[in-house]
Amino acid sequence: MTSSRWKRIQDLFHAALQLEPDARPAFLDEACADDDDLRREIESLVEAHGRPGPIDDLAEEVIDPLFARLDDGPAEDERVGPHRVIRRIARGGMGDVFLAERDDGQFQRRVALKFVRIGLAGDESLRRFAIERQILARLAHPNIASLLDGGVSTRGPYLAMEYVEGTPIDQYCDEERLSVDRRLELFCEVCDGVQYAHQNLVVHRDLKPGNIYVTREGRVKLLDFGIAKLLAEDPGEEATLATVRWMTPEYASPEQVRGATITTASDTYALGVLLYRMLTGRRPYEIGRGTPQEMERAICETEPSRPSAVVLRMEENEAGADGATGVTPESVSRARATQPRRLQRRLAGDLDTIVLKALRKEPGRRYGTAGELADDLRRHRRGMPVRARADTLGYRAAKFVRRHWIGVAASAVIAVSLVGGVAATSWQASRTAVERDRAEQVIDFMVGLFASANPAYSRGDTVTVREVLDRGAVRVRQELSAQPAVQATLMEVIGEVYASLGLSDSAVALFGEALTTRRQGIGDDDPGLTKTVRRLAMFQTEVGRFEIAEPLLGEALERLRRSGTRGTQEYASALTDIGYAWQVQGKSDLAEQLLTEALTEFEKLPEPPSGMGAALTNLGYMRVSDADLDSAEVLFRRAVEVRRRFGAEEEAALAISLEALAGALMRQGALEAADSAVTEALAIRRAILPEGHYLIAGSIATRGGILRRQGRPADAEPFHREALAMRIASFGEDHFIVAYSRNDLAITLQEQGREAEAEALFREAWLGYDRYFGSDHTNTAIVEANLARLQFRMGNREAKGHFAHALPIVRPVYPQNLIYMRDRVSLGTLRCQAGESVAVGELQEVADELRAAEEEDSEDEYLETLNALGSCLAQRGQVDEARLILALSLEASSGRPDDDPYRTFALRVVEDLRAR
Amino acid sequence: MNRREEITDLLIAASGGDRQAMDRLIPVVYDELRRIAHRELAGERANHTLNTTALVHEAYLRLAILDRIEWKGRAHFFGLAARLMRQILVNHAVSKRAQKRGGAKRTQVPLEEIVQLPETYSEELIALDAAMKRLEGHSERSTRVVECRFFGGLNIEETAAALEVSPATVKRDWEVARAWLNRELTV
To answer: B54-88 in b/e burial notation, b at 16+ Cβ within 10 A?
Structure first.
């Protein structure tokens, strides 16, 4: 309740305060008119406002000390859990740190105590605190200060950490005058600790020298791992500038200041800043003390100078910025036991490249993990070529893709379709308390089923898993119709096993029945439907019935969103399922959206489950489709890492990611690395999968692809033939995977010069794609172009029609691909021969594009285009234009020998023209 | 319903503005505070001073089934804690004065062991409490703002969240209430 008079008092009080003191009497004269009480009231309040009074004394003497004691943390000798506080050792943005002693009569140990602020997000903080504490307690590494204990005291939650006595790493390096080499060695130790934590999916988020100590024994100790996340008040806000304020902005990555997702790559960035500092004694860029926006701009946009360049630079304000006695080339090199020139030479090359790669603005273009960064530094120290050339390697890979004549998307799509089979979440994962009884019944049933497969019960015959399942399916249908929920669940269990055996049709059939059972027997609101619909949609997609799958996928997503399971691993896995299905169907936008969301959801989980491997792998395939092989490789490697952690239970999935990695490496031209990855995948698959399994076929096909790329098409051929045969056996003639396999085999045949056999296979492959994706799908067009290209070489007239259909579809997807550029020249030539006037314009267009690209390595294509255009103009009787174009061609090839085929061709046409 | 659940219901109701629930809650929290204090002080030095806010906080933590309190409820909750602080401190000051005059028994001073108030300020706290009661007659909201800012240690934004008003309103209320109380206490 607020009285109207009080309101008037309050309004006039504030209005008066707005005015200069001189102007107040006049204002009050008017405002209060004849109400003297009111006037006295306002005047006394304004007066009281201007000076401290009893309230302020009380606050200062009574209340503030009370709160200060809270903020100040425990007093000396105070007990916190089993610890006794000794003294405060640090004040920090995230709270103070106290040295304490554990003293419970059994053993004594010094610890560092940290308190966690609770604030308004109280209970949520406490819950996260408990979860994070468990994760952190499991981190055990010699370079990480361990979390010993924690709990909730009268002062709120606290953590007891290993107490580290030592010196911050940058200070240590300078004090000890460590050489660049010794610094790198120490830095690699830092990376080892960070990598270990990354493998356990803990991101530090606040790496900086103040958190990285070197002990008296010279050992690196990382402090406060994962604490930043733990202390961030509101998980939803953890990454914004507002919460970054306690971070040292110098070490914050662009994604951290922008509030984007924080990943292991954010730590890699901070490590990059640290390495920069350790090597050069300077910051990669000046951040200054501007507004948050200015700081953000500095971090997100300023490109750091090369370390080797910066160590020779005199900077006028360095002394001020560091508060030190000036950073000069001499002082920096002296601290590194060397001279400026030497230091400059030491840093130039590898170290420049490595540091700058770690500092790239886009997380995906950095080292994905600290391990990769350390790896490169170690390679450098051993004199081996470093991987940070990846910028140029990636560049070369892009060229490789441009050169390579099998469309990338075709291989990506097929590889994708192999992920889902095993990426599936197990049915147990979604078991809830409500379903427990039913689950028990299901388990009993399955146990009974497999017991019957025991030779002792089945008259000594050997029974295959498949027979057991078939028998089980029959029994489920016959015996359980009175219990629809149990019946449907069992159908799904058996269906999943069928699917993992590669028996997709049986899986589809059982899931279809389960769906009907749930809808009719239980009703449309059966929560079990969420999963049934989704899995059926996935299997339908896998067997290629897109039109059936499509509406199911829509329904699956809608049910999932309504299920209220957001924040669980099942939710993230379900998103992955749906994204994957869209991916297989070629709906990249939908797939990208869902898979990215899935990954974000996984990253939010305290401990990423194996399902995260599926999201990473599928996203990796999306990057492969974009020809962004660097990013794909990073994602695949992360997937391999996640899955390796799960050992035998995730071997099958591990093989998928290894296979994917092999594919990406192969396309980057890293054939040996690719071969070792696929060999591991193949070995796993042969060990755990039944003979003839389609996934084994996948690995065999990948090996074939690698051999072919090593220039050994004859060696590759038997692999591709074996894969094709296995795939026909698994999927039947009509599956697009078979068409894909035929395309592969056709290429090896064409490369061996067996054109007639190759043409027949390309044609079959194209028809297969056509049936699957429709004739206007990119993948179909890629294969059609393959067919047309061969036909063009063979002089087959069908080439023109196929080119004319395929190229407009492929071109916007691969605008830079030289293979398709050449194909357009071939089509122009064919059209010209057929007297189609459109040919001239088309050839002109190709020539313009190639000239604009100004790529040295596309000179052949440029010459070929000019020659085709010249001879086309000549045929059409446009002699002057023809001469001009051919002169251009001859000028462009003037550096080549006279017997160069492009030169010879141009000279011959010019000669013909002259003869007319 | 067990005791914890019962208390949580009271907390939720009190956070939502139910005065009866608040009245029933205070003795419960008092009890809890006393139990914590006795436990904490057992076997420790006599001059040991525990932090009242921390105690209040812990009492809530132990009492409430926090999962059941929504975020908004939780903001109210801090307003509630601030009111409780006011009660605790003022009661303490009152009993201290009574003690000095030789009247009250120790058992009526539940937090005697916990809060150690500089003696001279007891009277001022009591006067402040009385002034706040008068202020409440003019503007209840301003009184709540003073409670949150002064007794709860909340900043402008936190107070705004606790009382579900805008930070600008909190600032205006606080300015005028502070001036008003200072004047009342000086006169």
So the answer is: bbbbbbbbebbebeebeeebbbbbbbbbbbbbbbb
